[in-house]
């Protein structure tokens, strides 16, 4: 989890600020990339699942709760999660709607494995 509040802010001479959320080498196949805007309704519970070959990058526009590899996380607005292939994850019900920008690399149809 990359916490927005813990990221470095750079001030530019033209008045802009840039917040470095991630600077990391990722071993990803960029041949097919999928960008999604996902909305979970309030109290939405997602089945735990993983992706066999895809990485997912979640950028949260709202507070959320997620279970990742057996551990529960409270996610703040503007936090980011990077999920590697095989990471078991799913949304935990929360009282508010949750909006997420999701990048899936590579975009593979039928890459999801659902756990009961």
List keywords for this structure.
116 residues, mainly beta, four-stranded antiparallel sheet, three-stranded antiparallel sheet
Short summary:
0% of the residues lie in helices and 45% in strands. It contains no helices and 11 strands.
Output the strand order for the largest sheet.
3-10-5-8
Number of strands: 11
- β content, as a range? 35-45%
Radius of gyration using CA atoms only: 15 Å
From the spread of the alpha carbons, the general shape counts as globular
Average of pLDDT: 91
Class by helix and strand content? mainly beta
Helix share of residues?
A: under 10%
The biggest beta sheet reads: 4 strands, antiparallel
Order of helices and strands: EEEEEEEEEEE
Helical segment tally?
0
The end-to-end span amounts to: 25 Å
Low-confidence stretches: none
Task: Explain what the structure shows.
- By secondary structure, the protein is mainly β.
- 0% of the residues lie in helices and 45% in strands.
- The strands form 4 sheets. The chain has a 4-stranded antiparallel beta sheet, with no helix packed on it. Strands 7-6-9 form a 3-stranded antiparallel beta sheet, with no helix packed on it. Strands 1-2 form a two-stranded antiparallel ribbon.
- A hairpin with a 5-residue loop joins strand 1 (8-11) and strand 2 (17-20).
- The chain starts with 7 loop residues before the first strand and ends with a strand.
- The mean pLDDT is 91.
